[in-house]
Amino acid sequence: MTSTSRVMAVTGANKGIGFEVARRLLVDNPDATVLVAARSEERGKAAVQKLDTPRARFISLDMADAASITAFAARVAADYGRLDVLVANAGMLGMDVADTRASIAVNYTGNVRLARAVAPLLAPGSRFVFVSSRLGSLAALPGAALRATLTAPDLTVDALSRVMDAAADAADAGGAPALAAAGWDPNPYAVSKVGLTTLVRLLGRDEDRPGVWYHAVCPGLTDTGGNADAIAGLPGIVPLAQGADGVVWATRLGAEGGVNGAFWAEGRRVDYADQADMDGWKANVPAPELVTA
User: Fold this and answer.
1) What pLDDT does residue 117 have?
2) CA-based, 20 to 30 A from 46: which of 9, 35, 71, 277?
3) Are the C-beta atoms of 218 and 189 separated by less than 8 Å?
4) Which of 3.90.580.10, 3.40.50.300, 3.40.640.10, 3.40.50.720 would CATH assign to domain 7-140+189-273?
5) Is 80 one of the annotated active-site residues of the chain?
6) Where would you find the membrane-spanning parts of this chain (predicted)?
7) Which tens digit of pLDDT belongs to each residue from 55-81?
């Protein structure tokens, strides 16, 4: 069937920023159905129950499973026929170099599959917001050759995926030294988020339907409940609600955002290859410690 009301979905919506974003979308859009997408049916349905409205509905989605992503898109198509807003929040916070391949699989490859699967459901006026990170900035990369590859005007999503596969292979073969030799910051979370932010740029660049917008957003160093050990003691931690603010704000960005496929942080558009901007951020919020052994 085709829905006459707006349809919004949030991945990883059973907890943390994802849940807060789903709650805010329900409040801000009283005409909308919000799909709470989660890997765990038990936790997803518990989140729906907590949201306490018939406009919130659980839908199964495992970002590490290609079949689950295909089934998600098919379910949305069959039940609603459209998707007006999709917030891609689900992710993996891998801080051990051994997590590199898994981090890329969830944070990058899963989002490539998701973007392709739902593309037919996005009509003019749709927004696709990816929750990324300042660590997904190209300016975080020490390798000039790698930066040049990822900013090349003729880079394609398939070519980007090959770069990401090579990063996973390097980590598997030689750990942090091999990643560093290939030009990466040897932090699996950062590697995967660089891929994600670059993906969003390519999606925005190649989008040929007026009014379909792609944005990457860093919500700030937010205590999501699942990252407490990684961020403990760091300055600049923002409350969950504040982190969700920027994500919800991005679901309303369109032409006023200026550039499709843009990267947003601290409420402003950020050039994700700007070294000075990245250095200024690092001076105030140092990156969590990487586990290399």
Assistant:
1) 98
2) 71
3) no
4) 3.40.50.720
5) no
6) none
7) 999 999 999 999 999 999 999 999 999
